[in-house]
């Protein structure tokens, strides 16, 4: 094991070290104690949607094992834990009545974290929309902005003084690109017209929740974006144009309006007649000032012009000279530094947090002699922490790092086939085993990066 502190990668005093999860991916018992169904209950139970027919019915059984998992977090020396709340556990219909038993689960979790000296970072929405709201149009219904703010208010008031750092929405781009454009994720729609509308209502809901937070909440609030930097496959003009379209459709579609810049002009080129504009009042609501921004970062991509690749007309060129993870993502840590510097500039120096970073590699289904050796994940973790440190050295106001993920869990439509955990889960026995990457991470936290 790592023993010496090199000191070359010491992080700033007070840097926040944690790990992240999401409700539907770890909790299980999604219909217990009065909870309502979410779109992921429906989507995962619809044949053909999920690898190996996997669902979140059990997942990591965190709904029952949350005390054990807090003890696991302590063994990992975690200072913070990023989790999401299941909207339909708290409000079974998504609006109106509150399910006190559902809210009580999160109340116990938050108190357990605080007692363990672990700071709770709460994400209001990580993809699991109440099915009852989807029946009313979900993200396509403009009323969802108020429904979301009302839901946020329940949590802001319940956890006032205990949860100090809030994230509104995890990854608008994935919700829209996966759920409404390509259909790979719930609710499984395929429409560019819907994508524009859903994306806009997600941003409006974020703004409405921020406004409501300013009225009833306490602490800091921000949004969590996935940013995947785009590097042109060549210096040919058509590849640079493809890069711009890909960057606009994935990275700037949501960032620009949040920063008060409206939609990037390339979006109209991408969506054509499906592109539409919206009233200025919407953009004023969307650009509510926030206190921080979360960055979910995994990889970069290198697009080339591809006229047949709907709708962006760009296709990533595989960078065979670098390793790729089990999800097919290139391992290229320097791009994390580039992204952090770019985001720092794009947000005029807003405090940033890496709210997700991690990698899926093949791990065995069970531990051997109480160990799970995951050298590739160890390497990925070390090199991306160094890249994050390099960004701090370039002036980026980076406040923390949340490893994705605390546990092996349900990788959405890929089921349990992709393991991102720094802790191994044996899904036959629910036994947890800290992987070598988790043992390293615990050392990194204890030395504030000194062992890197
Ligand atoms: O795929 C690993 C994790 C998911 O398990 C998280 O729930 C989600 O927040 C998340 N976002 C990303 C990066 C964006 C992305 C997601 C899915 C597919 C391609 C890119 C990676 N991840």
TrEMBL record:
<dbReference type="InterPro" id="IPR033132">
    <property type="entry name" value="GH_1_N_CS"/>
</dbReference>
<dbReference type="GO" id="GO:0005829">
    <property type="term" value="C:cytosol"/>
</dbReference>
<protein>
    <recommendedName>
        <fullName>Beta-glucosidase</fullName>
        <ecNumber>3.2.1.21</ecNumber>
    </recommendedName>
</protein>
<feature type="binding site">
    <location>
        <position position="170"/>
    </location>
    <ligand>
        <name>substrate</name>
    </ligand>
</feature>
<feature type="active site" description="Nucleophile">
    <location>
        <position position="356"/>
    </location>
</feature>
<dbReference type="GO" id="GO:0030245">
    <property type="term" value="P:cellulose catabolic process"/>
</dbReference>
<feature type="binding site">
    <location>
        <position position="126"/>
    </location>
    <ligand>
        <name>substrate</name>
    </ligand>
</feature>
<keyword id="KW-0119">Carbohydrate metabolism</keyword>
<feature type="binding site">
    <location>
        <position position="404"/>
    </location>
    <ligand>
        <name>substrate</name>
    </ligand>
</feature>
<feature type="binding site">
    <location>
        <position position="25"/>
    </location>
    <ligand>
        <name>substrate</name>
    </ligand>
</feature>
<keyword id="KW-0326">Glycosidase</keyword>
<dbReference type="InterPro" id="IPR017853">
    <property type="entry name" value="GH"/>
</dbReference>
<dbReference type="Pfam" id="PF00232">
    <property type="entry name" value="Glyco_hydro_1"/>
</dbReference>
<keyword id="KW-0136">Cellulose degradation</keyword>
<keyword id="KW-0624">Polysaccharide degradation</keyword>
<dbReference type="GO" id="GO:0008422">
    <property type="term" value="F:beta-glucosidase activity"/>
</dbReference>
<comment type="similarity">
    <text>Belongs to the glycosyl hydrolase 1 family.</text>
</comment>
<feature type="active site" description="Proton donor">
    <location>
        <position position="171"/>
    </location>
</feature>
<dbReference type="InterPro" id="IPR001360">
    <property type="entry name" value="Glyco_hydro_1"/>
</dbReference>
<dbReference type="InterPro" id="IPR017736">
    <property type="entry name" value="Glyco_hydro_1_beta-glucosidase"/>
</dbReference>
<keyword id="KW-0378">Hydrolase</keyword>
<feature type="binding site">
    <location>
        <position position="298"/>
    </location>
    <ligand>
        <name>substrate</name>
    </ligand>
</feature>
<feature type="binding site">
    <location>
        <begin position="411"/>
        <end position="412"/>
    </location>
    <ligand>
        <name>substrate</name>
    </ligand>
</feature>
């Amino acid at each position: 094991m790592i023993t010496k502190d090199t000191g070359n990668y010491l992080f700033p005093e007070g840097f926040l070290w944690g790990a992240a999860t999401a409700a539907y991916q770890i909790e299980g018992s999604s219909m217990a104690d009065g909870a309502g169904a979410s779109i992921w209950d429906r989507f995962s139970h619809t044949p053909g949607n999920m690898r190996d027919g996997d669902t979140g019915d059990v997942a990591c059984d965190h709904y029952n094992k949350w005390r054990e998992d807090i003890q696991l977090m302590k063994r990992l020396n975690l200072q913070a834990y990023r989790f999401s709340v299941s909207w339909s556990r708290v409000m079974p219909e998504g609006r109106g009545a509150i399910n006190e038993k559902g809210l009580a689960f999160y109340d116990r979790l938050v108190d357990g974290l605080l007692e363990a000296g672990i700071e709770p970072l709460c994400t209001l929405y990580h993809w699991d929309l109440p099915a009852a709201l989807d029946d009313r149009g979900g993200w396509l219904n403009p009323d969802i902005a108020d429904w979301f703010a009302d839901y946020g208010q329940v949590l802001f008031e319940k956890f006032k003084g205990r949860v100090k750092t809030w994230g509104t929405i995890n990854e608008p781009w994935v919700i829209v690109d996966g759920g409404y454009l390509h259909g790979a994720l719930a609710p499984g729609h395929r429409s560019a017209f819907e994508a524009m509308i859903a994306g806009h209502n997600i941003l409006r809901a974020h703004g409405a929740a921020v406004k409501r937070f300013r009225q009833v909440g306490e602490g800091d609030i921000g949004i969590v974006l996935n940013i995947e930097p785009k590097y042109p496959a060549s210096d040919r003009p058509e590849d640079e144009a493809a890069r711009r379209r890909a960057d606009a459709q994935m990275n700037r579609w949501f960032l620009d309006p949040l920063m008060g810049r409206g939609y990037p002009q390339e979006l109209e080129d991408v969506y054509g007649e499906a592109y539409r504009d919206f009233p200025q009042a919407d953009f004023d609501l969307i650009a509510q000032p926030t206190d921080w921004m979360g960055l979910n970062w995994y990889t970069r991509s290198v697009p080339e012009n591809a006229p047949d690749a709907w709708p962006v007309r760009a296709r990533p060129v595989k960078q065979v000279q670098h390793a790729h993870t089990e999800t097919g993502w290139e391992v290229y840590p320097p791009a994390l530094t580039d992204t952090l510097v770019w985001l720092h500039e794009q947000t005029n120096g807003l405090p940033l947090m890496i709210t997700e970073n991690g990698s899926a590699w093949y791990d065995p289904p069970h531990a051997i002699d109480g160990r799970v050796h995951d050298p590739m994940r160890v390497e990925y973790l070390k090199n991306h922490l160094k890249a994050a440190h390099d960004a701090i050295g370039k002036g980026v106001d980076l406040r923390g790092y949340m490893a994705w993920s605390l546990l092996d869990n349900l990788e959405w439509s890929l089921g349990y086939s992709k393991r991102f955990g720094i802790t191994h889960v044996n899904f036959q026995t629910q036994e947890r085993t800290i992987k070598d990457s988790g043992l390293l991470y615990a050392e990194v936290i204890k030395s504030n990066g000194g062992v890197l």
